[in-house]
C-alpha cells in the first residue's frame, strides 16, 4: 500500500528506531511512547485492520506475539508483565491502518483502558 505510514517505515522511506526485523515482521519504537517500553510490531504484509486478517495471515499474526514476547523478555519485562494491544477501527483508537501490536511495559497499567 503506497500511502501507508507503516509500509513506508518497513521500506525505509521513513526513519524509525527498529528493534526487531525478520522475514515476517518488524518492530520499532513508538514515536509517542505511553510507557518506558512502547514498541510496535507490524507484519511485513500490509493488512489494514484486524477485520482484514485472512486465514493465510494467521501464522504472521501469531508471529507478532512471539516476537513481542522475545523483546519483552530481552528488556526484562517477563516477570512483572506487559500489555499487548491491537486496536481495530475508530472506537478502539486505531490511527494507522496497517495492523500493529503494541508492546507496552515498564509501569503498572489499569484495566479496563479508558
Ligand atoms: P494506533 O493508534 O493505530 O493503535 O497506533 C498507532 C501508533 O503509531 C501510535 O501509538 C503512534 O504514536 C504511532 N506512530 C504514529 N506515527 C508514527 C511514526 O511516524 N513513527 C513511529 N515510530 N510511530 C508512529
Ligand atoms: Zn501498510
From TrEMBL:
**Its Gene Ontology molecular function terms?**
catalytic activity
Q: Which Gene3D superfamilies match?
A: HIT-like (3.30.428.10)
Which residues act catalytically here?
100
Motif Histidine triad motif in this chain: 98-102
Q: Which SUPFAM superfamilies match?
A: HIT-like (SSF54197)
InterPro entries xref list:
Histidine_triad_CS (IPR019808), Histidine_triad_HIT (IPR001310), HIT-like (IPR011146), HIT-like_sf (IPR036265)
Every copy of the HIT domain together lies at: 5-114
Q: Which domain of life is it from?
A: Bacteria
Protein's recorded name: Bis(5'-nucleosyl)-tetraphosphatase (Asymmetrical)
Q: Which organism is it from?
A: Hyalangium minutum
Lineage, top ranks? Bacteria, Pseudomonadati, Myxococcota, Myxococcia, Myxococcales
